[in-house]
Amino acid sequence: MRPRGSASAPLLVLLGLAVVIALVRLQTWDEPLERDISGAAVMGQELLRGRPLYSDVWDHKPPAMHVTHALSQVVAGYGRGAIYLLGAGSAIVTLLGVYTAGAAAGGAVAGLWAAAFWTVVSGDLWLQANQPNTESFINACLVWAFALLVRIEGRAPGYGRVVLVGALFALASLYKTVNVASATLLACALVAWPPPGAGGRRRVLGAMAVAGAIATLAWTLIVGWFAVTGRFGVFWEAVVVFNRHYAGSITANLAKLLEPASWWSMSSTVPLAVLALLGTVAGLARGDRRRVTYLLAWAAGTALAVGLPGKFFPHYFQLWLPVLAVAGGWAAGVLVRLAPARIAALPHLAGGVVIVLLVVLQLPLYQLSPDDFSRAKYRTDLFVEERRLAHELAVLLQPGETFYEFGAETGLYFESRRRPPSGTFYAYPLLSGPVAARLSAQVVRDLERRPPELFIVVDWAANAKNPVLDWARERYRWAPGDPRRGPFTLFVLPGSALEARMAALPTRSR
Q1: Residue spans per domain, the chain
Q2: What is the pTM of this model?
Q3: How does pLDDT run across 305-316, given as a tens digit for each residue?
């Protein structure tokens, strides 16, 4: 029987690491948010106010992200508190999953190293991981599914475990459908190399079939809900038809995985990747080959999930972070076991060096102001200017007055707490693709129903040929004084009270 202290020590360490995550996330509380996060928050708020998803509030992602933001706002309100709750909460849930998975192949030592690595990389600034993009929630789902699968040994998997794994796979795919790749490859790896004492390949195949059935049932219920509410067509158009256009050539996308330039975003994780690679080789040579094979299947699924959309945005690579953390923990565990007694401390020293290097790569950004922090991360001041304008709009507009932005700067709505007059507030799908004509006509109808007092155009979309811009050109004119706000141009309704107030304002100096 282990002493009580040895059992509670990992819990205390995990608690300390969770506190570190929570405190570090506070450092970037005021950072200007990029469009995916602010847009999801606005959509979550609109869902809570009764606007239906896809038929009114339009997005091309499956519904899990929007529901997640809505739930966080029920708990923490509409604002920065809900964003923080999602970011810190998902990172801590993933922390516990990383520890559980890490401990499966190397005991508490491997689990704690994995958790320590995750604590450092979970907020990787160069991968934009300090804020809760979709990948944050996917990671929480997949690492726990992996942990539940990798710990099957000595007996057949229970139905509770199998159902939970299926539910986690389903939820991951309801954030982004590309995560079916990781789920499928993990299930195949388990069937190909069944855990000892699990009843053999046939029993494991049956268990994975049940997990697949649970995931299929979840999707059936979601699709059925949209069908019953008369929204199947718009759901299919957004999640399937548009995404097929968005991704383009799947073959060409996957070929980009072989190009070194596609991986530049991962440069800040190189120290951990090197340790993970060494540990994987050692594990295949003299360690737990079966579990390492499962990890490689997860890694292959991650590569597919990153590559399939074809965009290779930095935040896509966040999917690698829990894989690397678990692999790094397993590396520490196997190296501790294989190291001769005279150098028994060397694997721990190597782990410490990796953590120091990871911190050194991140630390310079944490010394910046929130605005400079955003500029460094996204290599643009767009989101800084967006927030500045949003704060001006919050003061400038009277209750009941609205604005519409032709662009994709959803932080204007989030930061000003103004509701968008149309549920389609991303210009990208309006400019090209299979839904451009229908959505453009829908936006025009929304704006015609009650024209917003202010119409804003961002520079990158200003020269587009689009019915929404044509509609606005016929009805709006330059805002009085200087209509420019950084990359934005402001237009007002002629004769409106807003135009009169802006004309009375002193000349702006910027």
Answers
A1: 4-366, 382-504
A2: 0.95
A3: 999 999 999 999
